[in-house]
Amino acid sequence: MLPSDSFYLSKYGDGTPRLTADIRSEVGLIVTIPCHNEPHVDRVLADLYSCITPACEVEVIVMINASGHAPNGVLESNAHSLQQVLRAQQNAPDWLHIYPLVDNNLPPKHAGVGLARKYAMDEASWRFEFAQRNDGVIVCLDADCRIPPNYLVEVFNHFREHPKTPGCSIWYEHPLDGLDYDRAVYEGIIQYEMHLRYYVLQQQRLHLPYAYQTVGSSMAVRWQDYQREGGMNRRKAGEDFYFLHKIIARGNFTNLRSTCVMPSPRQSDRVPFGTGRAIMEYLETAGSGMLTYNPRSFQDLALWLINPREVEGSTLPESVRTFLELSEWHKAKCEIASNTSSADQFNKRFYRWFNAFKLMKYLHHARDHYHPDVPVVDAAKAFLYDHKMDPAADSKDLLEQLRQVESGVSGF
Q: For the chain, how long is the longest CA-to-CA vector?
């Protein structure tokens, strides 16, 4: 029997579900894992079936995928991954149901993590439709992540305790040392995570309503909100950023910090940007150091965001003034003001205009014309100095300080 009609699935999905296995009404979480050329997907699956039992049953959908033009080595790796998933099925406890989906013929134009994540999340939507589980949650992981035993319990409890949240960003920490990778890889991931945290902390300092981490392997969303926002996109990189900011705009978005995802720090040339690309470029430059946005760009912006409705462009730093002129802010301000009758309404409408994408455009404008990027270590130290904290000399310790500030251990 087919599920009830779904506008999203009928318009944007494949049209029919891929899995034929029955879903139980007790399933409350479906974990989706894109898997392309992954030699050790069995590790994260073992972590999942070693988790503390949550107050619901759980499904895991592993989307094994490749482009129709993929080399034989990738297809062989995917075949190995399939065998690992099938073995994991046999080891899983009764409350955990693991299913592989295999598509080694994705259209080359769109093949990538976005499309693979979309297929897995769409399938999860079908499953919840069948189960008529209106409170079901789609959880996103990656095949090279590790998770602690409380992961599933905390995700389930978070959504139960926050009934209005459409989704959440789950706390993550990259491994910063060990024997799995060369020392240079760990040095690179320290700087890359420093950049990610510095960027969000600067947004929090400006009280921006979308100041959340947007890491694809560390997010979860209610399946009905997933559909309402048009589902996952097919981007080959940055799919998580674009998707999550649609969910964040719904309001009541949350952080989940009582558990932790440990993403891999490995390098990759599969995507044009993101963790794998950043580490690869760091290694190619012999560890010369990563750059990030100049603190002065945020300082300039703060002078406008104090009161964007009243502050005149002529009184602003040139980086902001010229950006507002290019963005036709005066026209947008008049439109916002004519459609709002209170300060709260103005602010809500304002941040639909000055959203996360507009912020990034401003930062690129400021970087290209006024305030060049600076070493991420210097930016992190400047941020901590501004908050009357003594920054650590060691980069690993410096990152730990940023983690503490973002987690609330050391507040602003």
A: 68
